[in-house]
Amino acid sequence: MSQRLSQKFEQLKSQGRGGLITFITAGDPNPQTSSAILNSLSDAGADIIELGMPFSDPVADGPAIQLSSLRAIDAGMTLVKIIDMVKEFRNRDQTTPIILMGYYNPVYHYGVEKFIDDCQQAGVDGLIIVDLPPEENDELLEPAKLADIDLIHLITPTTDQARLEKLLEKSSGFLYYVSIAGITGTDSAKEEVIKQRVAFIRRSTDLPIAVGFGVKTGADVNAMTQHADAAVVGSAIVQIIEANQDMESQALANKVQDKVKELASGL
Amino acid sequence: MNTSIQFNGPDSKGHFGIYGGRYVAETLMPLILSVEQAYDQARNDPQFQQDFDYYAKHYIGRPSPLYFAQRLTEHLGGAKIYFKRDELNHTGAHKINNTLGQILLAKRMGKTRIIAETGAGQHGVATATVCALFNLPCIVYMGETDIERQAPNVFRMKLLGAEVVPVTSGTGTLKDAMNEALRDWVKNVDDTFYIIGTCAGPHPYPAMVRDFQSIIGRELKEQITEAEGRLPDKLVACIGGGSNAIGLFHPFLEDESVQMYGVEAAGLGIETGKHAASLNGGEAGVLHGNRTYLLQTDDGQIIDAHSISAGLDYPGIGPEHSFLNDIGRVNYVGITDDEALQAFKLCSRMEGILPALEPSHALAYVSELAPTCSKEEIIVMNMCGRGDKDVFTVAKVLGVEL
């Protein structure tokens, strides 16, 4: 497992609290402002950062993240620039884990081996590739393992016991429980259902569990982390960026910080 | 060359060489696996085959005729040219061969809601048609841009009882409609079956759609043997996603004497970047559930396709075609908008058949190929759709007001 991730979950455990995972799309609304936002997240209370790699056809995402991806691509964001962005971030922050999240095509086109090498050098700790199920992910998983980069697997409402075991065989870092059968930024699941599903996953593994999809407020984060080890917030942050996209970089970063502070307030 | 192994694809994980596979969100994986399992059982069930054959004959009107295009043959002055007349199917294209097979599977799986994507509207119409026939609700995702340029087909779908949902995300064309259909499916995994319109998508779709469309090639094999006492020398079909082409080619893949030509839409010309030729102008990548050739930027973002024919306007291609391209079994060539338009006009006057703009691409290539062949050679082209739907587009290009 990536050292930064294991240390982070150890730390959360010793502090007796859940973690906040924040998602932004790299390069949204433009590369410069996005860097300012990235650099402000951990100070505001983000424990782990998910950095979205924008893709033209994000089929698992709702309107908010679809639009953020297009803004980033239109502003000239590329995978090379994302790696650079992480490098720069690592110059000032050596402890906050960074997970790159996205779709397989840009990674495949970049070249899997080169991508993993560059991620390792830049200080990336984990990857979530939404459209790369365990049936297809050996070609990425093997080099990632060698580089101590965790390939985070998604568990969903459609995952049964047999499928869970298949997913766990390949999992490291933490597990990402997708709380609804759906796309990002839409419906929320009932807390009672989450509680049952998290318990179902815990019966088979000791890996930390993060819950995402439909988590929008500090109260949601608080509720989710009663059961899971961390909560992921994406669309609710991305919508702040969307609403204030014309703001000057630092002003927008401050706006995002306010939201992240609110999200972390219940922890 | 061990042909039986090469052409029996895909493997158990849905791969044709390095192409194909199952690249979908985890939420969909259990469903994809259950479709695969259900299809495996269905295709080995004689009752399923009987049902398919019954509706193919009495509802679609199969077998479609094999027609010797005598005037065109004389005009081009080379090989004998035959048309496989899949434009005479009910709803006017080959698309319904596939939607019939998939809706029979959906019913078998107990699904109660059907979704589909459509570009030109032909697959949407074919899906809406079988949904009316089997009394299932039908939701068709269609890009806003396509809704504007294919108004008659939108109205046809509505008459057939389907709900047409405009897709505004991305550029509002076929790939965006497919994105939106996948998003719908992820939200409705329990009751919904997704009828994909071409031989692409996650396994088992590319193989399943090919199997349903292979009725075209199987019929042809019998018909040409009856007409000429032998197999054809060359097969020609247009390619967007590639379902009519794979349906024509597949039963002949092991017949080494039969040469095959898949005709991609070269749009304004491959060199302009405005085209839909994934094999001739794209690179391998992953989109919509499968690994295949795609039109994409240096950074792996998908590029919009361009073609005068909305049915070929897709930035990807079925994974089996990518495989057949790499091993060299099929020749993939390009035909521009202008060349297709010339062929459209030629065929209308020469044979009294208005071809759809999609097979007009195939016909344009036949026009190049036939004169280079001897008079003893036989070319069969798949006339996969009729051109009535395209008269507005053609009129516009020709500067005629209707």
In short:
The complex is a heterodimer of chains A (267) and B (402). Chain A is an alpha/beta fold and 267 residues long. Chain A contains twelve helices and nine strands.
Description:
The complex is a heterodimer of chains A (267) and B (402). With 267 residues, chain A is of the alpha/beta class. Chain A has a domain at 3-151 and 230-260: TIM Barrel, CATH 3.20.20. Chain A contains 12 helices and 9 strands. Chain A has helices at 3-15, 31-44, 63-74, 79-92, 104-110, 112-122, 138-146, 161-170, 191-202, 218-224, 235-243, 249-264, and strands at 19-25, 48-52, 98-102, 126-129, 150-151, 153-155, 175-178, 209-212, 230-233. Chain A has a 9-stranded parallel sheet with strand order 5-4-3-2-1-9-8-7-6. In chain A, helix 7 (138-146) links the parallel strand 4 and strand 5. The radius of gyration of chain A is 17 Å and the shape is globular. The mean pLDDT of chain A is 97. Chain B has 402 residues and is of the alpha/beta class. Chain B folds into 2 domains: 33-56 and 95-209, 3-Layer(aba) Sandwich (Rossmann fold), CATH 3.40.50; 64-92 and 214-397, 3-Layer(aba) Sandwich (Rossmann fold). In chain B, 44% of the residues lie in helices and 18% in strands. Chain B has helices at residues 3-7, 29-43, 46-60, 70-76, 95-108, 122-134, 144-149, 151-159, 174-187, 205-213, 215-228, 243-249, 278-281, 319-327, 337-351, 357-369, 391-397, and strands spanning 15-16, 19-23, 66-68, 80-84, 113-118, 138-143, 163-167, 192-194, 234-239, 259-267, 283-287, 289-294, 331-336, 378-382. In chain B, the strands form 3 sheets. Chain B has a 6-stranded mixed sheet with strand order 3-4-14-9-10-13, sandwiched between helices. Chain B has a 4-stranded antiparallel sheet with strand order 1-2-12-11. A 4-stranded parallel sheet of chain B has the order 7-6-5-8, with helices on both faces. In chain B, strand 9, helix 12 and strand 10 (259-267) form a beta-alpha-beta unit. The longest helix of chain B is centred in the N-terminal third of the chain and has 15 residues, at 29-43. Chain B is globular. The mean pLDDT of chain B is 96. The interface between A and B is large, with 43 and 36 residues.
